[in-house]
Design a protein that fits this description.
Chain B: This is Outer membrane protein beta-barrel domain-containing protein. Chain B: Keywords: Signal. Chain A: Keywords: Hydrolase, Protease, Serine protease. Chain A: It comes from Hymenobacter roseosalivarius DSM 11622. The complex is a heterodimer of chains A (about 625) and B (about 240). Chain A is of the alpha/beta class. Chain A has 3 domains: about 45 residues; about 90 residues, no CATH class; about 300 residues, Peptidase S8/S53 domain (Rossmann fold, 3-Layer(aba) Sandwich). In chain A, about 25% of the residues lie in helices and about 20% in strands. Chain A contains 15 helices and 21 strands. Chain A has a 7-stranded parallel sheet with strand order 6-7-5-8-9-10-11, sandwiched between helices. In chain A, strands 2-3-1-4 form a 4-stranded antiparallel sheet, with helices on both faces. A 4-stranded antiparallel sheet of chain A has the order 18-17-20-21, with no helix packed on it. The longest helix of chain A has 29 residues. Chain A is globular and about 80 Å long. Chain B has about 240 residues and is mostly beta strands. Chain B has one domain: Beta Barrel (Porin). In chain B, β3 and β4 form a beta hairpin. Chain B is elongated. The chains are: A alpha/beta (about 625), B mainly beta (about 240). At the A-B interface, α1, α2, β16, β17 and β18 of A face α1, β1, α2, β6 and β9 of B. β18 of chain A pairs antiparallel with β1 of chain B.
């Protein structure tokens, strides 16, 4: 593919105006010549300014160069991969190596280096080179025999000052009873006690975290056990190309704590405090560049080489670079990189996104759009329902997303102490820790088998919708066989007068708390969330830009109270899907009476399916 | 209450007739219509159609084309505000139309060479030419991007109508013992009311550098009347998109 070359503005303007000059009558040509000179100068001046601002070297741009083949390249996996990477492949019965692991051909690389201004990254997985080059150099690249295609990759907006090391302290050293309750329930909701009883704590698993930066993580008391056990195995900043990652932002610190952080009293903030970690900085806080996606790919290749089992990526790319209709897992480099990581046996866990309240986007970003990426949405700890900001599914090609959910509001470690924060960025590491424990229990699972089991372990499975996915995974599904038994029926489909389908809850199922009876209960009302719950949250990876969340005073437990996990409410979930399983509509109902739902049969199309979930039981009605 | 109940029954009946699944007797905690959720809008910064307001300021640049008037730079300039429509042709090309109000003011230096509009010298003197302008443009976008405006170069052609011309001067002290006299002459018969020109914008997101060049003459040819030096034709400034 030829490169998309951007001719200098001055040249374009000049040539257009030359043609204009010829077409105009003589008395206007003088003006046009003046105008032409003016625009030539303007173009030269302004293009110079913009290039100086956004490019490392004036007049160069970023290009992605795909090479033709890897013929003749030799590769010894034993010397390249860490033993854990080889073991992971063996466990999952993957070949120890395939052509995507081979290095790029040195002669091709030499040819590219000789032509371009600089090479910024070489990808084995995609047999490609990222480089900076002038348009003329890019044109020369196309003529190289080893080059299959050259694609222009624009730089981002002007660079803002990099975040300084020692980010401002977001956390406070005091942990209130309410914070303690939240910290307890964010893991308890996933079944932390079951994993603890089964001695599953992520031990032996390697988790890579790709994030904005890990400010303070090298000193924070929440990670003392990781430092003491030397379980932060490696760090690397793929943007600055150096090992130091403890700057750039504290988002990564908060994410890490949701897998392995501890409160001063030993309460775990995540489920895998005994796992090993690799910390990669792939993201900048205040800008969106394609270079971040390349950094993500570079980090994934690095993680693969280091023997990582799970990648947690609390990052997502949306409207700056893409359209919602492109979110099909095949368009973005980062989605293709995530798919490749899964092919290498790595489970990729990614935040669904925080765009649920953004009318311009609303659905998931990338790489959460990848079909093999476990996209994690957020639920509200107060009611266990979809939390407003959590991005909805489906993908652009109508696949289910998010896959599962976890708390979207958490207590996390941050420079200065602990902070109550929210975003699907934190639901994702809670799930990554969960996945580590599940994989620890059965190390022979492949990444996609684990993916499927994580979905099957979720509270709503096999029911799903585009707000909750399959629901919140439960540790008991992995640790106790009883949970795998089919649930007893809790409701029935009843056809009423050939025109209505009713869902009737069986007698004795569910109790309604004693309360004054309303005069009528047959009104339909959508209960809007409170204003606080509708507050927008910054994009995934940037949640630290929002102020910490305050706990609600009316629900504040007394000091010293033992944290408990309230019973999740029993809602009735129902959806209508077409014959491909794509949802047309879905609802969550608060159950107040046994005759819970009536659906006009005429509203269903041939091949439609009504699926209902209540108290662990899911049943399906198929329209003829 | 009867009325409320009737209304409720009516609403349910309407839903039933419309073919929308109706949940009865329950509090709906979450409701989603997937088709509506996944509807892709036709409007947006990089969608088929985009419309937004903007405002800006451009300083007058260049010189009068002959002796007889000197511009006070800095104070002479154009404040403008308008509405922009953009029609996307492709990821890299778009066309559009601007409608704006621009208030262009030329401040004159008072010196012995001055002849515009008279040789009389004043404390301060200016011409104000508020205009309604329409502008068409072609846009060349740089780089791959999502639903954002991105970086662009616009080449424009514009035409304007001077709503009301005014010549304003201040004498201090004024004649006949007056401390200060301000005079504003309107509807100047020697000013051309129609103008057109070309321009360019170089922008990134909501910010843009703007240059406009007038191709028409400012003053009418009034036969035997002395010909005034032409106002500088170029304005250069900045623009802020409101979106």
């Amino acid at each position: 593919m030829p490169p998309r070359q951007h001719a200098p503005c001055a040249t374009i303007v000049s040539s257009w105006l030359l043609q204009l000059t010829i077409l105009l009558p003589h008395h206007l040509r003088i003006h046009c010549l003046f105008v032409r000179a003016f625009f030539l100068l303007l173009g030269l001046g302004l293009s110079g300014i913009t290039h100086t601002v956004h490019a490392a070297t004036p007049s160069t741009a970023r290009y992605w160069v795909v090479l033709r083949d890897k013929a003749g390249v030799r590769f010894n996996p034993a010397t390249y991969f860490a033993p854990q990477a080889l073991a992971r492949r063996q466990r999952q019965q993957l070949p120890l190596t395939d052509s995507t692991d081979f290095p790029v051909r040195p002669d091709y690389l030499r040819q590219v280096r000789a032509v371009v201004d600089s090479v910024t990254f070489v990808s084995r997985w995609f047999n490609a080179v990222s480089c900076r080059a002038t348009p003329a150099q890019a044109a020369a690249l196309c003529r190289l025999p080893g080059v299959r295609s050259v694609e222009s990759r624009p730089d981002g907006l002007p660079m803002l000052p990099a975040t300084q090391p020692g980010a401002p302290e977001r956390g406070t050293p005091e942990v209130s009873a309410a914070d303690h309750q939240l910290a307890f329930s964010q893991t308890a909701s996933l079944g932390a006690a079951d994993f603890r009883r089964a001695k599953l704590d992520g031990r032996g698993l390697r988790i890579a975290i790709f994030d904005v930066g890990f400010s303070g993580a090298d000193q924070h008391a929440a990670f003392q056990h990781l430092r003491a056990g030397k379980r932060i195995l490696a760090t690397y900043d793929f943007l600055k190309k150096k090992p130091y990652v403890y700057a750039g932002g504290s988002h990564g610190t908060e994410v890490l704590s949701c897998i392995a952080g501890l409160l001063p009293d030993g309460t775990a903030l995540g489920l895998a405090p005994e796992a090993e970690f690799l910390l990669a900085r792939t993201e900048q806080m205040h800008r969106e560049r394609f270079a971040e996606e390349e950094a993500w790919l570079a980090a994934a290749e690095w993680a693969d080489q280091q023997g990582v089992d799970i990648i947690n990526s609390s990052l997502g790319y949306t409207s700056r670079r893409y359209f919602p209709e492109q979110m099909n897992g095949r368009n973005s480099l980062v989605a293709r990189a995530a798919a490749m990581a899964v092919r290498k046996g790595i489970l990729v866990v990614n935040a669904a996104g925080n765009d649920g309240l953004d009318p311009e986007w609303r659905t998931i970003g990338t790489p959460a759009d990848g079909d093999s990426v476990l996209a994690v949405g957020g639920i509200d700890p107060d009611n266990f329902l979809h939390i407003g900001f959590s991005s909805y599914g489906p993908t652009a090609d109508r696949r289910l997303k998010p896959n599962v959910t976890a708390y979207g509001t958490v207590l996390a470690a941050a420079p200065g102490g602990y902070v109550r924060t929210q975003g699907t960025s934190f639901a994702s590491p809670l799930l990554a820790g969960f996945a580590a424990c599940a994989w620890q229990q059965n190390r022979n699972l492949t990444a996609m088998q684990l993916f499927a089991q994580l979905q099957a372990a979720a509270s709503l499975y096999p029911y799903y919708d585009y707000a909750h996915g399959y629901g919140v995974p439960r540790a008991s599904w992995f640790t106790g066989s009883a949970q795998k038994k089919p649930a007893a029926a809790t409701f029935d489909f009843v056809a009423q007068s050939d025109s209505m389908l009713a869902i009737i809850i069986r007698p004795g199922i569910g109790q309604v708390a004693a309360r004054p009876l309303p005069l009528y209960s047959d009104s339909v009302a959508v209960m809007p969330p409170s204003k606080e719950k509708l507050a927008a949250v910054p994009a995934v990876g940037r949640e630290e830009l929002a102020p910490p969340v305050s706990d609600s005073a009316e629900k504040r437990p007394p000091a010293g109270a033992t944290p408990t996990l309230p019973d999740p409410p029993s809602y009735l979930y129902w959806h209508v899907s077409d014959r491909r399983g794509v949802l047309r509509t879905y609802e969550v109902l608060e159950v107040k009476q046994r005759a819970v739902l009536q659906i006009p049969l005429r509203s269903l199309q041939a091949g439609d399916t009504v699926q209902v979930h209540y108290r662990g039981f899911t049943s399906t009605y198929s329209a003829q | 209450m009867k009325l409320l109940r009737l209304l409720t029954v009516g609403a349910c009946a309407a839903l039933w007739l419309l073919g929308v699944p109706a949940a009865q007797a329950q509090g709906v905690l979450l409701r989603a219509n997937v088709a509506a959720d996944t509807l892709r809008p036709a409007t947006g910064p990089n969608r088929a159609f985009f419309s937004h307001f903007y405002l800006g300021y451009a300083a007058v640049a260049g010189k009068f084309d002959g002796p007889g008037a000197t511009l006070r730079y800095g104070r002479s300039g154009e404040v403008f505000a308008g509405m922009r429509q953009k029609y996307r042709l492709s990821q890299t090309a778009a066309i559009g139309l601007d409608l704006r109000y621009a208030r262009l003011v030329y401040h004159l230096v008072q010196n012995d060479q001055k002849i515009l509009p008279t040789p009389d010298q004043h404390q301060s003197e200016s011409f104000a030419l508020p205009q309604a302008q329409a502008e068409v443009y072609g846009r060349l976008n740089l780089g791959r991007r999502g639903n954002v405006v991105g970086r662009y170069l616009d080449l424009t052609g514009w035409g304007g109508w001077i709503i009301s011309s005014a010549h304003h001067y201040v004498d201090k002290p004024g004649p006949n013992g007056a401390g200060r006299v301000e005079v504003t002459e309107r509807k100047l018969n020697y000013i051309n009311r129609w103008s057109y020109g070309v321009g360019a914008r170089l922008g990134s997101g909501r910010y843009a550098l703007v240059a406009r060049y007038r191709l028409t003459d400012s003053f009418k040819d009034l036969g035997d009347a002395p010909r005034y030096p032409e106002f500088p034709r170029l304005v250069i400034g900045g623009e802020l998109g409101l979106f």
